[in-house]
Amino acid sequence: QVQLVESGGGLVQPGGSLRLSCAASGRFYSINAMGWYRQAPGKQRELVAAITGGSSTNYADSVKARFTISRDNAKNTVYLQMNSLKPEDTAVYYCNGRITTTKWDPARDYWGQGTQVTVSS
């Protein structure tokens, strides 16, 4: 069974930085795109950043130039470096992976349990 486990959330002051990590474990054939989503109270879940298997990246306009997504394929891990954090970045951050469990099956989405990021003075 595939699991995505996030870490690195917490409380930070405005202007501060946090680094989120998400490691995939279990039995799978390949990991395609990976990404980070977030959901603030009363709002829909939104894409923050995504990275393909070839390391092409995509960012929400609200985080461009402040957040950086990267991945370590050897460790099956994706990272989100968040700088210049703002109160509006406060949300639960979820890791997503499009993972193929066998070479005969189509890729499907897997989600982590979420990690809270709170930006407040």
Give a quick precis of the structure.
This protein is mostly beta strands and 121 residues long. Helices cover 0% and strands 55% of the residues.
Give your account of this protein's structure.
The chain is mainly β and 121 residues long. The chain has no helices and 11 strands. Strands 2, 4, 5, 6, 9, 10 and 11 form a 7-stranded mixed beta sheet that branches. Strands 1-3-8-7 form a 4-stranded antiparallel beta sheet, with no helix packed on it. Strand 9 and strand 10 (108-111) form a beta hairpin. The chain is elongated. The protein starts with a strand and ends with a strand. The model has no long low-confidence stretch (mean pLDDT 96).
Structural class: mainly beta
Total helical elements: 0
**What is the first-to-last residue Cα distance?**
40 Å
* Main beta sheet: 7 strands, mixed
Overview features:
121 residues, 0% helix
Can you lay out the helices and strands and say which pair or pack?
Layout: E1 3-7, E2 10-12, E3 18-25, E4 30-39, E5 46-51, E6 57-59, E7 67-72, E8 77-82, E9 91-100, E10 108-111, E11 115-119
Parallel strand pairs: 2-11
Antiparallel strand pairs: 1-3, 3-8, 4-5, 4-9, 5-6, 7-8, 9-10, 9-11
